[in-house]
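Hey, sorry to bother you again with one of my protein questions. I've been puzzling over a protein and I'd love to understand its fold better. Take your time with it, there's no hurry, and the full record follows here:
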Amino acid sequence: MTNPFVEKLSTGEWSPERFRRHLVETGAPLVERVLADEVDVTFVDEPGDDTTVTLSVVIGPVIGFNKIDTEFAAVPGTPFRVLTLRMRSDLRFSYVFTRCGQRVSDPFNPPPRFSECSVERFSGASVAVLPDAAPLPWLDQAEARPAPAMESAVFASELLGNERRIWISMPPGEFSDESALPFVIHLDGTPDHSAPSVRDALVQAGLIRPCAVVLVDQLGLRRYQELLCDPVFSQMLVDELVPWLLERYPLSRDPGDVALAGESFGGLCAAWTVLHHPATFGNAIVQSPSCGYHPDLKMGTGADELLRRTPVPTLIADFLAAEPVPIRVFHDVGELESSITHSRWLDQVLTQKGYDTAFREFAGGHDYAWWRGLFADALRWCFPRQAQRS
């Protein structure tokens, strides 16, 4: 597999300067269709020395970057190294290069806006969008928009005995104290989160009701305690954060106008909290939720596997045990994620229980490259401009 432009470089038909200009003009990686649903994808690096270069993508068994075993190959007589892989043509995925143990973005495909995430190992990645990938037009518009104004506050919790930063983004326009705006609380928040800009694009297009976005910091490693179906953290959201917001902003008190959103562990927390607190939250936005979680679920090896009894994961078990409550669930997951079996199981349970739910599978992995854009679909589902929800 050799890309035709790499072939021009390797034969001397193109100089390194011309090849570099081509990369800048067309963007990287280089993509060539070989079948109706397959493409050759050529990644290019210019490390400047004999450094070994490898590729890692957010598709595979690891939650994060999965290393591709094949190393980049040098193009003789040039400073470039290349790696060509055959891929499905509908993929969208984050990726990084590794040089001398250090992860770097693709020098010919800089990370897009909003690429810095609360979970550091996902941050600063380049994104490849192959030709048949489903479009994310509202993310494209959000990336091109000025950053919306946000207020920042330090929120102290007596229940948790800690404090954290939160950011509040009101929708564009003027609103009175009686406006009763719908709002979404998004876990794993950061000051440069994509959600407010996606919201602004949808509001300006008249597709959703104006809604506030509240972004909640997860305090580093405390995230791995707070988001794992922790009843105290969920109670903090209900008894402390929501009342704090209602006192200060013109927000709705109708649970149907309130959503809790998160990705991965944040999605697990959002679904679990909404199930147990439907009088506060009427909507859950769960993106690639870690719904296989159970505190006693551990991997065994060898003979131990013959005796191990796997418990039903916590979130699924709780939905199975509870009488249906008046909540709605937007749920998306990558079809190449290791967690997809549990997501499909959760969706089956929700459907059988009669919940109002929307379930999406996307062509990718456990990846912000998809979550950022599909959040627009979630907002359109939760807070549509039309009086009747679809």
Residues 4-133 form a domain with the Immunoglobulin-like fold (CATH 2.60.40.10). The mean pLDDT is 94. The first strand starts at residue 30 and ends at 35. The chain has two domains: 4-133, 139-382.
